[in-house]
Amino acid sequence: MYIAAAQFEPKDGDKDYNLAIIEKLAKKAKSEGADVISFHEMCVTAYTFTKDLSREELTALAEPIPDGKSIQKLIQIAASSDIPILAGLVEKEGEALYNTYVCVSKDGVLAKYRKLHPFISDYMSPGNDYVIFDLFGWKCSILICYDNNIIENVRAVSILGAEVIFAPHVTGCTPSAMPGRGFVDHSFWENRVKNPKALRSEFDGPKGREWLMRWLPARAYDNGLYYIFTNPIGYDGTHLKNGNAMIIDPYGEVLSEIKSFDACITLAKLTKDKIPLSGGYRYKNARRPEIYGHILGKMHQPKLKPIWMTTKN
Length: 313
Description:
alpha/beta, six-stranded mixed beta sheet, 10 helices, 30% helix, 24% strand
């Protein structure tokens, strides 16, 4: 399977604009031979600005699936571009609102997944189900942003048979307890044409890529699967994001990655021969859950509030 991972700078709440960029990049991916294209978390609506929306405003932004206008437009784009598309938006079902990610093709919605650990808005409900779906003979799954930081989620979908995890994010360049993390000053973005090296240094340092490389390759390696990481470039709300969309193989190696500051794609070919040769594949087969199953399943009170959510910006 030949996969394209995309990045672009969304406009807050401007679905028409964001869908137009999605369409442009989908056509580009198809023209370059991709079988499927993946975009970042809530790419249809934009993400960070929703933290300041009232329930009424967030509800107005949300749409039902599959009958909502944006989903129907995504299906139309997938049909006209002849390529399946993975993209995210705010879903409403009854009174509930979800951070949802879908895979669509010309035939309709192939898969739908609701973020398990939403925190951007108190009005969003958490999903409670994993998803496994077939794409060109591959078993695929979806984990949205923070869901990937809880390692049990990755292992769970891997045990369920996932060979590929689509991991749409809006992340990086925010404060954390880890040394070196924090916001990237606007001046770096403003001067990206005159001084691209300075911005690239910020994006590739501990605020961005260096942090990603602490854990993204480990998720792929430990579970013996492919990781498709997507992330916006430029501003999402008031937060500057580093992009770095990348495709990682079951050995934990980066096959391809975006280093541009523009809306673009990166492509890589996935081959199944790597999976049974990977360490993670062997480790899963060596598990002894009778020893630790009751420990890993022990109930506790979840705590979910990233440091940046308590930092003014």
